[in-house]
Amino acid sequence: MKTMTQLLGRFAIVVCVFGLAAGCSSAPDDMPDVAEVTGTVTFNGEPLTDARITFQPESGRPSSATTGSNGEYTLMYNENTPGAKIGKHKVSISKANDTKDAAGEIIKSEEIVPAKYNLETTLEETVEDQANEINFQLES
After folding, report:
1. Are 30 and 61 in contact (CB under 8 A)?
2. What are phi and psi for residue 2, nearest 5 degrees?
3. What are 2-42's pLDDT values in tens digits?
4. β partners of residue 55
5. Sign of CA dihedral 44, 47, 50, 51
6. By the 8 A CB rule, do 109 and 91 touch?
7. Residue range 94-120, pLDDT digits in tens
């Protein structure tokens, strides 16, 4: 009887391992088609560093990125998936010059990017089913 219990236990472990592997090897059923989106953001002709860029599709979850030292960005759909949903998007770009006090607490500052690029965005882009390079030249 102990042998039968051991066999059933081992069989259950094998089934679980294969089930987990199968679940990890493919995209979820609700994952939309996404495409790579990279680019550069400048503000008054200079790279805009540490800015938050968000692509919000007409429906579904947004993709976002933080610009690097040269204003470059690569959108992420989620933690493991680069890109953005294919289709039309409203784009917002924002940056506040937050600083830290002597105790290391963050001191919030005003948004330095005009509202027409974030809260009242006028930016719209279409993500195509290919690698997309989308650059933004913002002016104050």
Report:
1. no
2. -60, -35
3. 554 554 445 545 444 444 444 444 455 678 999 999 999 99
4. 63, 91
5. positive
6. no
7. 998 777 888 888 887 889 999 999 999
